[in-house]
Amino acid sequence: MHEFLQRDLDYVIRGEEVLWGCLLMAVTLSVQGIGMFYVMRASGALLARTQKLRVQFDMTILILMAWMIVVVHLLEVVVWAGFFTWKGAQPNIFSALYNALVNYTTLGAGYLPLDWRLLEGMLGMAGLLSFAWSTSVLIALAQQLMQRALARRQAEH
């Protein structure tokens, strides 16, 4: 029998794995919520300060907010990578960061030891939820910026 088939037969989901996965997802979504709160707060402050400036500043605001969102996502990956390193599921933090990022973006890697394998899927779910949330924040901001540009244009005419 092939080694990977035997591994699949030996795999049993453990309660500890499910509990840690749920906790990590809760932490991930908490970081996401706090991060998106600050992104919206920062964008609101920048929008208020640049109300009368040109449209080019609107694009700068959108780019800055996208960078903030990327930092939030990277913090979420660090949480998972730290856990994998702490539990000995990865040999070092660098491997853990790479592999966590690959699964967070739902590319999938199959890198965790057998007794933590369920967390790979849970990490992908956390990434999907976080990306969807971030996308909605960027769309809301882009919509605000477009409305503002249209209002400026109407005021000029």
Strand and helix map with partners:
Blueprint (H helix, E strand, L loop, with lengths): L2 H8 L4 H35 L5 H32 L6 H12 L13 H39 L1
Question: What's the domain count?
Answer: 1
- The separation of the N and C termini measures 76 Å
Major sheet details: none
Shape: elongated
Tell me, rounded to a whole number, the average pLDDT: 88
- What Rg, in angstroms, do the CA atoms define? 21 Å
Instruction: Name the poorly predicted regions.
Output: none
Tell me the series of helices and strands, N- to C-terminal.
HHHHH
Q: Give the helix level as a range of percent.
A: over 70%
Number of helices: 5
Please report the total strand number as a whole number.
0
Structural class: mainly alpha
How much of the sequence lies in strands comes to: under 5%
Describe the 3D structure:
By secondary structure, the chain is an all-alpha fold. The relative contact order is 0.15. It is elongated. The protein has one domain. The chain is built from 5 helices and no strands.
